[in-house]
Amino acid sequence: ETGVTQSPTHLIKTRGQQVTLRCSSQSGHNTVSWYQQALGQGPQFIFQYYREEENGRGNFPPRFSGLQFPNYSSELNVNALELDDSALYLCASSLSRGLGADTQYFGPGTRLTVL
Amino acid sequence: QKEVEQNSGPLSVPEGAIASLNCTYSDRVSQSFFWYRQYSGKSPELIMSIYSNGDKEDGRFTAQLNKASQYVSLLIRDSQPSDSATYLCAVHSGGGADGLTFGKGTHLIIQP
Question: In chain B, which among 2-21 make CB contacts under 8 A with chain A?
Answer without folding.
Answer: 4
